[in-house]
Design goal:
The chain has 235 residues and is an alpha/beta fold. It has helices at residues 54-61, 93-104, 109-122, 138-149, 168-181, 194-200, 224-232, and strands at 16-25, 28-38, 43-47, 69-73, 78-81, 156-160, 186-191, 203-208, 211-217. The chain has two domains: 13-77 and 155-235, 3-Layer(aba) Sandwich (Rossmann fold); 87-153. 32% of the residues lie in helices and 25% in strands. Strand 8 (203-208) and strand 9 (211-217) form a beta hairpin. The N and C termini lie far apart (42 Å).
Length: 235
């Protein structure tokens, strides 16, 4: 079910097709012939060590960087939460989300108000909505970042290390929220934490040195740690 009827007047294919993507920075080849087909409504965990090319692939998907080769087909509305989650800390939570909704081009103001209020409730920010962002814990800042990524009700949600630095209670809450969000859209979740994949994802893709080393349904993987080690050992 769509979050706002304003954006749900027609059906949109929420699947993602990544075909033969390559990307280099100077002499360093970061992605090598990456191919992935992600069906609508799947939560895909992109697992790999630091430097595997996960963030580069995500930035290509959102259009921030251009691939050197290959093609990407994705839904028109994409939400993105980067690893560093940049926020305007001097703004109040509701003020910031209203500002970002306006910058996103969401019109008219009544729709912006409706959207922001719904998102604040959805991600559990109601008690914090009148606080400065600088006053929030890391967990609540991540919720603000998620709310911003959800502006416009994206069909594809891309999350880059969304639980880094959270305490155990915050981890449980954010993981549950991401699982819930995945019921309404396709989600790509980048992480280097295997437990994240086990608890949140339908499918795991292991990326190392810019190449897909494994691609499996999580429920079919008996030992994710062993799969990870065997996929990256000789890279």
């Amino acid at each position: 079910m769509c979050m706002w009827d304003f954006f749900c007047n027609f059906a949109v294919d929420m699947s993602v097709s990544i075909q033969h993507i390559g990307k280099s920075f100077g002499a360093q080849q970061v992605l090598r012939d990456v191919c992935l087909d992600i069906p609508e409504g799947q939560i895909l965990g992109l697992l790999g060590p630091n430097g595997a090319g996960k963030s580069t692939l995500m930035k290509i998907l959102i259009g921030l960087w251009r691939a050197d080769s290959g093609t990407v087909q994705a839904p028109p509305r994409i939400g993105y939460l980067p690893e560093n989650n940049p926020l305007y800390e001097e703004m109040y939570v509701s003020e910031y989300l209203m500002f970002m909704a306006q910058m996103t081009g969401i019109q008219p103001s009544e729709i912006r108000n409706q959207m922001v209020n719904a998102l604040i409730e959805r991600v559990g920010l109601t008690p914090e909505r009148h606080k400065h962002i600088r006053e929030l814990s890391k967990g609540y800042r991540q919720r603000v970042g998620l709310a911003q990524a959800l502006l416009g009700d994206p069909q594809l949600l891309i999350l880059d290390e969304p639980t880094t630095g959270l305490d155990p209670n915050q981890l449980v809450e954010i993981r549950a929220l991401i699982r819930d969000l995945g019921k309404e859209r396709t989600v790509i979740l980048s992480t280097h934490i295997m437990q994240e994949v086990r608890e949140m994802c339908d499918r795991v893709v292991i990326l190392d040195h810019g190449q897909v080393k494994a691609d499996r349904l999580v429920k079919e993987v008996e030992d994710l740690e062993t799969l990870f080690r065997s996929s990256t050992l000789n890279s």
